[in-house]
Structures are given as C-alpha cells and as structure tokens.
Amino acid sequence: IIAKTPHDEL
Amino acid sequence: MNVFRILGDVSHLLAMIILLLKIWRSKSCAGISGKSQILFALVFTTRYLDLLTNFISIYNTVMKIIFLACSYTTVYMIYGKYRNTFDSENDSFRLEFLLVPVTGLSFLENYNFTPLEILWTFSIYLESVAILPQLFMISKTGEAETITTHYLFFLGLYRTLYLANWIWRYHTESFYDQIAVVSGVVQTIFYCDFFYLYVTKVLKGKKLSLP
What is the structure's pLDDT at A6? Predict the structure, then answer.
C-alpha cells in the first residue's frame, strides 16, 4: 500500500 | 474524491480568500507574517511544477492555478501595494531555521531521487512548518485581529479535513502517502493550541490576546 505518483492531491 | 477532500480544499481556498479580503478591505496587512506568505508561495510553486508535466483533472489544474494566484497576490499585497502597513519589526522569525532542515530532509527522505519529486517532498515538509512565522508573530505581539484568527481557523480546518481524507482513502482505496500523512499530522498539531484559543475566546466574541 503506497502512494501513487503522479500526486493527485493539492 | 471524497467529501473530506472537497471540504478540505474549500476550507483552504476560503482561508486564502479571507486573508486577501482582510488586506484589500482594510488596505492593511498589519499582523500578517509576510514570511509565512512567502513560504506558502514557495510551497505551491515547488509542488505544482507538475502542472507542466502531468494532467490529473480539470478540477486539479484549476485549483492549483487559483492557489498559486491567491498566494502570489497576497505576497504582492504585503511587500508591494501595502508594504507601508506591513509590520516587519515583529515578523522576525529566522527562515533559515526552517529552510535548512526542510531542504536537508527532502533530499534524505523522498519517494524518488528526481528533481521534481525532491521539490514535491520539499513542498510537503515546508508546508507543515510554513505557518510558524505567523504563530511566532502572534505570540510576539500577544494579539491577533479577529479576521486573522478566522484565516488561521480555516487553514487549520483544511489540515484536519485532509487527515480525515487520508483515513478515508486508506480504507477505501488502500491509498497511503506516508510523507504527506506524517507531515500533515505534524502540521495539524501546530494548530491545536490555536484552535483552543479560537474556541474559548474568538467564538465567544472576544479578541484573541495572549496573557
């Protein structure tokens, strides 16, 4: 479980 | 996209608009830390470089452009248009105390050792401490205008809603952004003391002044 790139948050 | 995320973004936008309205209507930026606003402009600039490389959604692109525009307008108001009302004497936080560790940490702890990714990481770490010059200024002068406290409240609310957003995303999408979450928790903690004063004083109609 890791963050996805590209970053989709502001 | 969930309700916490949307409300968080709206709070963030509202905070920036409140600050701009305060400056614009009173034609004064008294009590506002120019250093915090420069740090926020730097945060948005280094984080949103992906506007040029990645497309996420219309919402994402539009919000990023609005955030950048609000942030640079605020800096211009403080150091340009209304610089004679800016209280630089009390805005004396030493920025190198934040910039040096944040820069070092973003090189050490990131997802990818690439320029864009290091700048994104830098922006996340920097955002978590960018409000400190403003809080330092309030503790130095011992007071804040009520409108300034509304600004800080919405900025803190945005952080708190983003925490809820991450908990939601963790359970629904198995999404977990460790760098953002750890920095977000740190950032939210900085607002706790302020939230307490806001609820016990400002919401009861009193001005925020420290003993």
Answer: 85
